[in-house]
Amino acid sequence: MTATHHAAILPQKGSPFSVELRDTPEPGPNEVLIEVKAVALNPVDYFQRDHGLPPVPIYPAVLGSDAAGIVVKVGSEVTTAPAPGSRVIAYALSFYHKGSPDHGAFQKFVLAQSEAVIALPEALSFEQGAIFPMGVMVALTAWTTLGIPLDTKYTPQDKQAVLIWGGASSVGSFAVQSAKSLGFIVYVTASCQHHDLLKKLGADTLFDYKDENVVSQIVAAVKKDGVNLHTAHAVVPGSLQPTLDVLKETKGDVVAKVAHSPPLPADHPTLDNTEIAFNFPPMDVAARDKHLYQCFHGWLERGLQSGSVVPSPNLQVESGGLQGLNEALDKLRAGVSGTKIVVPI
């Protein structure tokens, strides 16, 4: 551990990152200090860099959330996180810490709360480890947003199905993996080139969202399979209306429930007897900490240990370290498909 370290600093809204030295912090009682070896990029990162949205409360800022690295030091009250020297996956973001730049992943040493730090299996690289945090958190929060506990275990006899619209995205790929672990029969839309991967992740039936009759294809499959489809996760922008079009034909008299991961416009489409909820974790700190623990120390850590959870989607490793983050984020903003961009640090 050094007294200072390099970080990708965002001086103000709309500026590019610049790499500068920051003081290396000491972990608080429930925190873990991690030497970052790789970070993964998410669309929210370039939205915050370019537009300051979601709001960035402190400038200069350090952004990012998805990290893998080595534990350097743990706080005095930490009981669950791996010991110093351990390889770990960490959900390290400043959003839950009032914008504190000590807590953003885009730097060489970062603080993360212990609920969101778990062991990285030896079989996985740091680049593979960095792929998990945001995708897992958003995918799992969709279920709890709809009132579905993460320990749910439907049986085939329950015939409970779910529709995931946008399965090839990072969140979508973990939505598929987690839906399978909950016991759902999993219907997924994605481009055809991603169908083989999603099948391996647990999708039961796949549809090309570009087909003009995709809605009728899904409805026909649900009726043929004799399953109950009244639950959905609209993962990508523009997916709510076709999702509702499917549910209109499949939900029967049951109240349908849709988790919506993109921001939900005030004038969004609706459907009778259907609840549409923006996918967001609890804002109460104690409830959120418990949720983080369930997502990471519960679902993800157990799944990695058993081999039932794997890195997804495909990795795209970009070089350049902290200095290369601007260019890597520009590539993400330009558009990737079925791919997560990861940068070794």
TrEMBL record:
Enoyl reductase (ER) domain sequence ranges: 14-343
GO molecular function: oxidoreductase activity, acting on NAD(P)H
Alphabetical list of SMART domains matching this protein: PKS_ER
Superkingdom of this protein's organism: Eukaryota
Gene3D superfamilies: Medium-chain alcohol dehydrogenases, catalytic domain (3.90.180.10), NAD(P)-binding Rossmann-like Domain (3.40.50.720)
InterPro entries reported in the protein's UniProt record: ADH-like_C, ADH-like_N, ER, GroES-like_sf, NAD(P)-bd_dom_sf, Trans-enoyl_RdTase-like
Pfam families: ADH_N, ADH_zinc_N
Official protein name in the record: Zinc binding dehydrogenase
